[in-house]
């Protein structure tokens, strides 16, 4: 398969659109956790109940198409190969839990993959909306439309005092998890990030790596999300997170300006060394690739590099993950083979952009 065709098939279409503040905010995500009334939660339910929940969702899909949501396709986990599941995880469309632990697990996907609804994961339903840049309010609006569409036909487990009831107590209330993926090389290079993370935590937010809880912040990419779901409205949660993110954006821009002012030649050298590695390496591991890709994206944002698209960071951070590399290769790869394939794919991707902009 050619890289051009692979890119068309592999990348979510929203990744190709530049959203607000997209030089720093790579994506916004809103997720709503919901359970159905009179059904046991997934932590304890039977295979029969899990199958029944799946049938309820299928009936809702067949009964009506909401014009604001569009057509959704159901994908059942048992119908997918292991590599296909891994790719969906790497694209943030489903969770590892849906792959490894769910009973009669499935997901609903929109054509542009902005909408992903996990079924029979930790909760009966987890509605997710993904958008480029800082668009939390827009993502929440779409998630609420889908939430209302489901609730028209299915009664949720809801308590007047506690709100929506969920398998994990930390999600009780709104059931809302809002998060943004941010590229923060300026704050990392100036070592300000070590002070900022504790301050963010004190505001009731949490900072994680690219793939959420337990993951490392490779490539200077950090995921920032709310911890509190009870006692605040969905609107307040999103507004508070947006406010904090805007402050971090301002600090990141200030850090980049300071680096250009005080260490311009050293920064430019770092950017082009990383570009040289990506353009010529024959073997490259995930961590080194992530660091070099981050440097190159910073160089694009600062105007050092002119002939590469800004979406390169979003694309390569996904495309160089193990699942995608093996999908592109057409089968399983051993670790050193993945490192070789990663280097080849990056070289080919950079060459495509250079041709397009020459």
Automatic annotation (TrEMBL):
GO cellular component: extracellular space
EC code(s) of this entry: 2.7.14.1
GO biological process entries: phosphocreatine biosynthetic process
Signal peptide: none
UniProt cross-references to InterPro entries, sorted A to Z: Arg_Kinase, ATP-guanido_PTrfase, ATP-guanido_PTrfase_AS, ATP-guanido_PTrfase_cat, Gln_synth/guanido_kin_cat_dom
The protein's enzyme class: transferase
Gene Ontology terms, MF aspect: ATP binding; creatine kinase activity; protein arginine kinase activity
Kinase keyword on record: yes
Positions bound to ATP: 27-31, 92, 126, 177-181, 208-213
Keywords, alphabetical: Allosteric enzyme, ATP-binding, Kinase, Nucleotide-binding, Transferase
Extent of motif RDXXRA motif of the pArg binding pocket involved in allosteric regulation: 338-343
Notes on how activity is controlled: Appears to be allosterically activated by the binding of pArg-containing polypeptides to the pArg-binding pocket localized in the C-terminal domain of McsB.
Domain of life: Bacteria
Catalytic activity as recorded in UniProt: L-arginyl-[protein] + ATP = N(omega)-phospho-L-arginyl-[protein] + ADP + H(+)
Function: Catalyzes the specific phosphorylation of arginine residues in a large number of proteins. Is part of the bacterial stress response system. Protein arginine phosphorylation has a physiologically important role and is involved in the regulation of many critical cellular processes, such as protein homeostasis, motility, competence, and stringent and stress responses, by regulating gene expression and protein activity.
PANTHER family with a match to the protein in the record: ARGININE KINASE 1-RELATED (PTHR11547:SF38), ARGININE OR CREATINE KINASE (PTHR11547)
Family statement: Belongs to the ATP:guanido phosphotransferase family.
Protein name: Protein-arginine kinase
Organism: Peribacillus asahii
């Amino acid at each position: 398969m050619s890289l051009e065709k692979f890119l068309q098939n592999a990348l979510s279409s929203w990744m190709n659109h530049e959203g607000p503040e997209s030089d720093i905010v790579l994506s916004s995500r809103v997720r709503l956790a919901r359970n159905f009334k009179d059904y046991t939660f997934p932590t304890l339910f039977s295979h029969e109940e899990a199958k029944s929940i799946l049938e309820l969702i299928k009936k809702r899909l067949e009964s009506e198409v909401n014009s604001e949501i569009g057509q959704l396709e159901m994908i059942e986990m048992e119908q997918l190969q292991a590599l296909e599941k891994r790719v969906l995880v790497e694209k943030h469309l489903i969770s590892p839990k849906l792959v490894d632990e769910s009973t009669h697990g499935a997901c609903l996907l929109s054509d542009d993959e902005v909408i992903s609804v996990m079924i029979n994961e930790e909760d009966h339903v987890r509605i997710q909306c993904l958008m480029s840049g800082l668009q939390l309010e827009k993502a929440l609006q779409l998630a609420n439309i889908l939430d209302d569409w489901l609730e028209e036909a299915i009664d949720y487990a809801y308590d007047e005092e506690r709100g929506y009831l969920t398998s994990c107590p930390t999600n009780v209330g709104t059931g809302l998890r809002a998060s943004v993926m941010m590229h923060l090389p300026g704050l990392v290079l100036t070592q300000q990030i070590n002070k900022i993370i504790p301050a963010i935590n004190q505001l009731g937010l949490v900072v994680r790596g690219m793939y959420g809880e337990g993951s490392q912040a490779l490539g200077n990419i950090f995921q920032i999300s709310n911890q509190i779901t009870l006692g605040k409205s969905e609107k307040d949660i999103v507004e508070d997170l947006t406010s904090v993110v805007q402050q971090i954006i301002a600090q990141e821009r200030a850090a980049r300006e300071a680096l250009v002012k005080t260490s311009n030649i050293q920064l430019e050298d770092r950017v082009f060394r990383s570009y040289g590695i990506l353009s010529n390496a024959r073997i490259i591991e995930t961590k080194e690739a992530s660091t070099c890709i981050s440097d190159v994206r910073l160089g694009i944002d600062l105007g050092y590099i002119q002939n590469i698209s800004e979406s390169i960071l979003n694309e390569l951070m996904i495309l160089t993950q193990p699942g995608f590399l093996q999908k592109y290769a057409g089968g399983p790869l051993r670790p050193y083979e993945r490192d070789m394939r990663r280097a080849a794919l990056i070289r080919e991707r950079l060459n495509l952009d250079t041709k397009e902009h020459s």
